[in-house]
Structures are given as structure tokens and as C-alpha cells.
Known about the structure:
CATH class of the largest domain: Alpha Beta
Number of strands: 8
Order of helices and strands: EHEHHEHHHEHEHHHEEE
Largest sheet: 5 strands, parallel
Helix content: 25-40%
Shape: globular
CATH superfamily of the largest domain: HUPs
Strand content: 15-25%
Mean pLDDT: 96
Number of helices: 10
Radius of gyration: 18 Å
Structural class: alpha/beta
Amino acid sequence: xxxxxxxxxALHEGHKSLMTAARASGAxxxxxxxxxxxxxxxxNDFEKYPVSVEADIELMINAGCDVAFMPAVQEMxxxxxxxxxxxxxxxxDTILEGTQRPGHFKGVGQIVAxxxxxxxxxxxxxxxxxxxxxxxxxxxxxxxxxxxxxxxVVCPTLREPDGLxxxxxxxxxxxxxxxxxxxxxxCLVSIQSKQQTTSFNIIQKECKDIxxxxxxxxxxxxxxxxxxxxxxxxxxxxxxxxxxVAAKIGDVRxxxxxxxxxxxxxxx
Length: 268
């Protein structure tokens, strides 16, 4: 039994928690580190993505990881970057991250399919912060006929004391930017706390205004059905809902999300 944690490196405590969860299940823990060029729609973002190989290896050892898989680009794309498999993710590729980052999920599908094919995991450990990406990977497993072979385990987002979701991109924030970055989580908590008293469009505007006032550039603040990511115009107490946010601080792009009514069960 193999528990697999796919990453792009610059590992932090959030990644460590995924490996710890895999270790607790009794699985052989495999962690990959590969900065995938095909999922970056912005060349500058790819070039600036943090790389910390030695620190990553040390964290994997401390987390009890059994196998570190750190392949080269040629190994993952033996036929070249332009000749990978293309998967149709439908609606998921037309909203939120799909709109803001054209081609991103095409690259995600290609690389995760390739990694799963090589590692052959029983369990795939993923962090909730990348919620839409998790749904894309679920769809990829369906399209490749591996839905019943590989079980996705979604682990909670780990946060800094001010609520900022742990992310490899946080390393790139300046000290003043880091102070402001926690505003994303404050917006999500505001949506959660006001869901029974205020319409979503009003809270959405409040959050956009707050982010802009603090010097952030909001890309989206959205409310969706947590089961299929159908976008919602307003709160629906009969659905399990998720609030999602993306914003830029300088040239650093951050995303986050929060289940806003966790007592509602997932649909079968």
C-alpha cells in the first residue's frame, strides 16, 4: 500500500502534515518534488517559483517519508512538453482558477496522471487549499479509469497564526506584504460568520473593497457548492458550501478557501 504526496517543492508544515497523515495510515510514503512547467500560464511565475532541494529532503526525512521522487523534466515528459495527454475537465476548467490561469489544469492533469502512473499509489494525499485542483484530479482519475484504484485523501489546510494558508509562495512575500496577506482568511471568515444575516453579494463587495484598500488585487471572491463547485449567487443552507478567494500582493498570487457550513454532509 502506497500513500503518495505530490508536491512542487519548497516544502512547509502543510506538506509535512500530508506525509504525516500518510505515515499514520501505515502506507509506504512517497513524496514527489517536481516544478511542473506545463501548469504555469505565466513564465515569470515559473521562473520565480521557490526551489529548496536540501531543505525539502530534510523535511521529508523528518516527516517519515520513505521515498523521495525528484525527477527531471525529460523523465516526466519524454515526448516533450507539447505532447502530453490532454484531458477534458469541462466546467471545472471554465471557472475561477480555470479562468484566471488558462492552461493550468491541462498541465495539472498531465503531470498528476504521469506521477500516478509511475508511483502506482493506493492513496493520494492532497491539501484542501487547492480545492478546485483536487476536483480536477478526481475528474482525471475518472477519465483514466483509476477512480476505484486510487483514493484521494483531503487533508485540512494548515495556517499561520494570523490565518494565512501555508503556501510555498509565501516565501516570496516581503515583510509588509506578509502582514497584509492574512486579510484573505479574514474575508473568508467574514463570509462564514455573516451567512445567515447578509446576502453574499454584499459581503463579496465588502471583501473586495477591504482587499483593495490594503493594496491587494482581488481576482475573485466566490461562493460555490462544495460538492461540484457550481457557483452560487447567494447562500443556500441546504447545500454544503465553500467560499473561495484569489488575490495578488505585488506579483505574488495567493489562493484560499473555507467550508462555510461544515455541519452539512457531502452529497453521496
